[in-house]
Each structure stands twice: as C-alpha cells, then as structure tokens.
Fold this sequence. Notes:
It is a single chain. By secondary structure, the chain is α+β, with helices and mostly antiparallel strands. Helices cover 46% and strands 12% of the residues. It has helices at residues 2-58, 78-84, 143-165, 179-185, 190-198, 206-214, and strands at 134-140, 166-175, 218-223, 231-235. It has a 4-stranded mixed β-sheet. The longest helix has 57 residues, at 2-58. The protein is elongated and about 110 Å long. Mean pLDDT is 76; it is low at 63-69 and 95-101.
Amino acid sequence: MGERGGESKQKAETAEQNEGRTQRGTKMASGMAEKKMEEEEGQNEKCSALEELKRTLSLLSPSSGPRGVGRPLPPFPLSFRVCRGPIAAPPLFPASPLAHGTPGTFPNNVSFITGDYMEDREPCPHDGDATAGYDVILCLGVTKWVQLHGGDGGVVRMFRRIYTHLRPGGMLLLESQPWSSYCRSKNITETAYRNYCDIRLRPDNFCCYLTSTVGFTCYRLLTDSGFQRPIYLFHKGPAPRK
Length: 242
C-alpha cells in the first residue's frame, strides 16, 4: 500500500509539473504573439503617419527653387496631389549659373513642358541656341488635331519648328492619322469644320512636303502595324549607315 501511494503521489507531482510547463509555454507563446501584434500595430501607425506627412507636404506649394534661388516653382495641379499623393518633379531649368551645364541623372534629367508647339510665339528651351537641340522628336497621332484646330498653317509651322529644333543628323518619328479620320472628326467645332474644308496639305502628301519643302533629306517606313497607321522616320542630314 505504501509503494502504491508513493507511485500515485509521484505521478500526481509529475502531472502537476507537466501542467505547469504547459501553462508557462502557453503564457510565453501568448506573450510573444501579443508583442508581435504590438510591433505590427506600431509599424502600421508609423507608415500611416509617414504617408499622411508626405501627403500634407505634397499639398504645400513651393515658394522658390532649390535653396531659395530662382523664380517660384509651379506646383502640380491640386487634383493630382490629392488623388495621387506626393509627386516630386525636378525644376525645368537650372536654378543657378553654377548648375548650368552640369549633366543630371535620371529622373532629374527629364522635364515636362506644356505649350502650343505649332505657335512660333510659344517659347521653347532651345530657342535661339544654335548649339542645343534634340536628337529625336516624336510626333505621334497629333497632326489631325493640329490641322483641324490650326489649319494648314498650323501643321506647316509645326513641321518647320521641328526641323529647326533638331540637331544635324536628328530624326523625326511621324505617325499621322489618315484622311478618313479627319472626316469623322470635322464636326467637333465650327473652327474644325472650316479648317477641314480649307485643308490642302493632306496626310498622303506629308512625306513629299517634309523632304522637298521643309528640308529633311530622306525618310523610310518603319511600321504600319498597331493602329494600322504608318510610322515614318525622317532624317535631318545624311542617314546613318546600317
């Protein structure tokens, strides 16, 4: 009887020890889970605070260029910043003479300028600078709208300005809409209809006009897939050897 009582007591003590270990393990696991949840909540709060800070800063209009030098920088439209959040854009032009000529790195070497390119009075960064210019100019799917809004005179000014702004050896990539597309869009405004009726320089004649009148030396067809519109490559100066 004494041996049996001792065994029962030992088993009970072992069971209590195992139960204690289980409780301690459960408590430790629960504590670790709570700690992890607290860390995740803290990280989420930090991210939310940073996003809110960036959004608030993006709504502030910059008062001047870098370090207060130069004219005020135009901010992005308010709707962009509210819907899309912070948008960082580099200055369009160097802020100081010291920065002029210093090559930038992407994306700080890319700028976006809006304007009416077919109008000679619209300024361009390279106007009056014979050493500057562009290696490639893309004119994709806009000739119809230029002619409907500005007539033949508008597209002629645009072509001549493109040629002027290209460096020697530069290239123009031209995708023009077919005449049938003009017919479908002629009634969008009274001005468009009047210009449509007066158009003499049709898309089929662009290649001949650009080479014989504007000054491009040669051209070739690159593709007619995609929207089934031909894309032509025009060269200002001799075409490079293949």
